[in-house]
Amino acid sequence: MKRNVFIPPPTFKHHLMYPVVIGHYYEFPTHRENRESGFLAQYNLHLVLRGKGFVIHEGERLELTGGCGFLYPPRAEQQYGTDEDDPWEICFVHFNAVDPLLSMWKLDSTTIFRFAGIQQVQRIFSSMFELMDTFRTGNEPHLSALVYELLLFLLKNSESLKQNNTLDQKEVIHGIADKIHDKPGFHWTSEHMAELSGYSLYYFIRLFQKIMGMKPNEYIKMSRISAAKNLLVATDLPIYEIAENVGFSSTSYFIKVFREAIETSPQVYRNIYKQF
User: Fold this and answer.
1) Is 102 exposed, middle or buried (0-12, 13-18, 19+ CB in 10 A)?
2) 152-163 pLDDT tens trace
3) Pair 77, 153 in one domain
């Protein structure tokens, strides 16, 4: 099966990125591409959902399976294809982008990677195909945003083929972070979180900080402050009940932490935002 959808040029000329063509191939055992330098003027992103294929990079043939992908910058030489015996299923998008943005993300050279979250990738592509089934010029911002979402998702959830295990580690740490966010009032301890992760206490704390950009106790505090802000604006609960609900040991400590984080007191915050 070979599905290509070519997208009309945008009527608004200032999108950070915009798709040119999207595609979905499966059960297509003759899929091969061999493009000379300068042939394709857009970025070319391919994501393997299942099956096998290959890409030729710097003279080396790299085997790709489900959860692998590659990104070519504009005008790059391109050589890739599916395995004839176990053809890959792929989704792809050719897109234009503001050059400094991709350079900042270090995506201005050929990139080959593995990624986590195949279902999320499928959801994004399904949304793009749905928008094109009944295309309207009013869909342009949404199409642009979906390409941006896809790139951001892959930046967060991918690694070089040469790296090992970082995706599994990210999945574990992100799962614990989600649990903290869902239950900020729970009595979270480093020991309990380390036990959930399956890592030693020392390694868990180091890994959490590396992946999340902050220590576990800082993330807990941030999640509790976010939950408190929602309760302050959405409910009439007294401050002491909000402090208790989001996991602070005392009202005075909650007020102190809130003021340090938001630079105002919970009551003033409520007065400002509850009126909207």
Assistant:
1) buried
2) 999 989 988 876
3) yes
